[in-house]
User: What shape does this take?
Amino acid sequence: MLSAGVQLPLRLRSSFTISSLIRGSRSTPCVRSIAASRRFHRPACLREQQSPELPSFLEAYKKAVEFPSATHDFESFFSQAEPNAEVVLHGYLGHRSDLSKKLSFVRLTDPTMKHSLQVVAFAKNEAFEQLKSLNVHSPVAVRGTVQKKKAKPTEGDKPAEDTWELALKEIHPLNDFPKEIIMTPETVFSPEHRYLQLRSDAQLRDALRFRAKAHNICKQELEQSQPPFTEIETPLLFKSTPEGAREFLVPTRRAGLAYALPQSPQQYKQILMASGLPRYFQFARCFRDEDLRADRQPEFTQLDLEMSFAKGEDVMRTVEGVIRRLWSNLMKDPAPEGPLRRVPYQEVMARYGSDKPDTRYGMEIIKIDHLLPVDLVGKISDLNDPIVEAFKLEGNENNPAETHQFISQFLDSPAGAPFNSNPDGGPGVFVYNGKQPLCGLQPFGFEAAEQVEELLDPDHGDLIILQARPRAPFSGGSTPIGDLRRALHAFAVSSGFKSAPTGFDFMWVVDFPLFSPSSDSEPGQGGAAGLSSTHHPFTAPKTAADVDLLLTDPSKAVADHYDLVVNGVELGGGSRRIHDAAVQEFIFRDILQMPAERLGDFSHLLDALRAGCPPHAGLALGFDRLVAVMLGKESVRDVIAFPKTGKGGDDAMVGAPTPMTAQALETYHLQLLK
Amino acid sequence: MLSAGVQLPLRLRSSFTISSLIRGSRSTPCVRSIAASRRFHRPACLREQQSPELPSFLEAYKKAVEFPSATHDFESFFSQAEPNAEVVLHGYLGHRSDLSKKLSFVRLTDPTMKHSLQVVAFAKNEAFEQLKSLNVHSPVAVRGTVQKKKAKPTEGDKPAEDTWELALKEIHPLNDFPKEIIMTPETVFSPEHRYLQLRSDAQLRDALRFRAKAHNICKQELEQSQPPFTEIETPLLFKSTPEGAREFLVPTRRAGLAYALPQSPQQYKQILMASGLPRYFQFARCFRDEDLRADRQPEFTQLDLEMSFAKGEDVMRTVEGVIRRLWSNLMKDPAPEGPLRRVPYQEVMARYGSDKPDTRYGMEIIKIDHLLPVDLVGKISDLNDPIVEAFKLEGNENNPAETHQFISQFLDSPAGAPFNSNPDGGPGVFVYNGKQPLCGLQPFGFEAAEQVEELLDPDHGDLIILQARPRAPFSGGSTPIGDLRRALHAFAVSSGFKSAPTGFDFMWVVDFPLFSPSSDSEPGQGGAAGLSSTHHPFTAPKTAADVDLLLTDPSKAVADHYDLVVNGVELGGGSRRIHDAAVQEFIFRDILQMPAERLGDFSHLLDALRAGCPPHAGLALGFDRLVAVMLGKESVRDVIAFPKTGKGGDDAMVGAPTPMTAQALETYHLQLLK
Assistant: This one.
């Protein structure tokens, strides 16, 4: 954190001014003198080794070291409490109420921070004064006598915790919560104080407990299936292979050699399929050296699985079982019944302009360029012969003026700006208005207006959006109109024009193209063909006909590749794999045109396939994202104990990454590039 | 594997000679021509784009792609089989027996490789010829008619699998197992063919399944305790801090900055204790950049846990519950009852010369230098005033000659050599022999011989070993006589002189010194004091008296540090932690004398402690090692799917680590040191 360069709002660093006033020789292992300027410890100068005066912080610590063990946790206390019994409880102090000079109340919150109990302190007891010297939130051990509660319930009491209170006999301070830190359930702490956020924010702690439960339910489903899946750990010190994403490297002490952290256990799990272990799963830590987004971390956890003698359908059925068990055990919403629907990539791209659409709010896209007069197309786009698509957003209260206002706000907002500046033409906006000529669709001309009315069935006050794009097959994750549909709906919800959709609409998006045009901006698979594997280069063609297309037109081949999508979020994706070494090598070498040395990086995989590997298929669910979706969280950061927060992947709390020392660089035979 | 430089015993690489004979332009995404020289695929030269002739490997793959789904797994088949039903089963072919030209038998092993079934093929069916063309071990889908078994049981039948057989109707080859690979249950494959080892070695696959079960049982015990432990994932992209071991670094794209892979989740879990999450556990991947040993891998898994408001005793009781549940669920040996015994470090070092002794075979050590005549001490060691210790190894059959032969063999063996060349003096060897003057103890003189007899109570033919060491308090993991005791016993077992001990003798070794003299050979904690923390610098002193010793003589302070030991193996270790920031800083700064910049690396931890962190304690069990001990394996490699095998931490199978490319180095602003 010293290196993070962030201003601390809290004076938590004060003890860094501690210094030894009189210090023994650095070489003597025995410390002769010490002084501390910590705020609640007076400095102590010690002259005699024989009978040193203990600095006050060590005196305080001696007492904390020998604190009494708890006789009960709070749950067993509440179920077993008997009047007049003496008990010891551990917990955190709440705010103290001094009812008189002789009587104070304080609530004690248990270590789980789920229960609390009223403690009564009387002036006749010496613990009374000690209690008064302690700060709120400080951890304590409390010895007291159980009694039926006499006082009125204080705020925050739970019925079950309202029966008993403790008459204070002894209180052992275990540490001190600084007065300077203001901690309420509403306080938002900076990322570097994540421990304070966790401690003050019950929802965040509950999210971590929920995550652990979700983990267990996934495990149960897989381990109880027949034949059962086996959880197998695979190495994290892997090697660099051109799968797609940029990998973190881990240099070794052998000059020039490095491991790579895996972007997924893909190759190891395929090798397990060649190893006579037919059903594998793992909660696998994965790594991608990419820039941070709200839903992406440089390290993340995926529920990774693979099945041999299996096709994509087998994997989808298995994962549906996982989803069904998660929802029926942990969610109020009903678990999805039956097989989830399978929607081909071409269809979701056409209907929603996205390969991970949120299908809950309609606004389906239709292609209308064949209906439009040439002059209207020319107004919408400078492209020659573009595809023009349209969708409808229903207005509220049949009020075109309100709709006008909404769309103007959107187009003027930062969310709308990128659509306005689309070089292929901005959105064509029409408000359907029964009081205007051709209901506001004049630019369509009579014939097209009628056909568009028939297709979109607009009501008075509805919004109709047109968007052009170049005439080309679908590729990638979205189209301009798909992005517009998503952004416009999000703006409608955030601005209150529409209410947020509820529930969960799951689907499998299937039949992705096996290959997509390469993008220069990604590290890619290193091939020279101008094509990249859409999923990864291990993905199998779907049918025998797609195998045929490998030779004639690989860009048309369909993959046995399936993404699980819910509410506009891709929960995970998987595929059947190529289990035949010759075919895999053909894809690497002849289709992707990887150079020989990159191809050599995969020789272990090819060898394993060649050793009689059975057909296999698998999937990885983004576990952080799955939990975030279940809890309705915007960001995976809300379901990770210690997320990276900075754009560069900083752990602001511990202050990572840090500068490599000269010594460390030398150990790894490295130096910084000048 | 190309880079591993290992000769391949198997010709698995042959398909790397595949090359395109006629190749289209590199820039056309459409592949016009292809040729394969793979051994069972004839090369095919394709001239026409319009109607290319499919290479034979693609033809074969088309069939494999559309293989029929299994109607049953073998377990459900065995429970539901009905005569004359048609079923499809998946599995691997066994060796075929051709009973006549018209009748063949072959066993089909299921994908789990736990069950098998007899398949009968008759010449009248076309599958008959196809079966004959397939290699043993090849994966297939088989369609057949269920019938009661007629033929005599063949070798390897299990009773439950002996009732039914399948009359072959169709067979779908799914891949081809190369004839060149000889695979029997006894074959030992080189590490680069780990998949073949896994596939051929049922014990190895069972070890992985056992490991997964052990994982679940540990989880259950912790999650069902009250209050429950919560499994929480902590980051692997951490930062470099001077805890003790050398850390792997992960350079980032920001020049000079790197993450470090954690040697344990120690700091994050302590911060969780400051975060209101009172009981944490995790199966945590940990990393140490150290040279490989049989029981150490550069990456390993530990069952990591931490409890707040707890002392060492609380952790030990929790872990005893884990061990008890593991043993009672998974082991034939009885689960250890009651609390495991606690043995102080000073005691195990004195009695066994080791801080992780195998206590099952006696041979306890006694200190005898005060009894010995000066001239005998002088013969044993050149040291001035050494400590001399002794133990007894019981001979067999009261036969001194046999004992003589055994000890001579040991001392002449590589195992004995290091003890002979001990600069402080080699072992003093005496065989107790009732037929010799003073029973062979003449060099002791009458008085000492009598006292040694009384202490060791030797019988005719027993071996008595003396060993000197410098007069100094115990430190580190073992003494020379402790190492000798261990090595001598191991040799006695391996040479057949003694039988191997059985059962499990658990203990907690407790009361370790808080600090030990620094060793120059380790990266250490970077302090200048000549002292290092024995466990790690977060370990708490045990009692108030030990807190006092921090000022007067820290080397005498005892830690609340406990190691779980069984049969000479340290299963794990833990400690109570310092939960007070001022005390922790005092240890860092004034006792260990860390430089300010290293101390700054821990500021996140100090800040978290300062925010009212409760007392806490924890432990990490080496999970690989635990499983290896439970299964009686010598090496953790036998319980890890893909272990590193080379001394330098190579993954021989995938061929990691690999050279960093110029591009990768540049991405991370690095260059190799010249």
In short: Chain A touches chain B through 191 residues (CB under 8 Å).
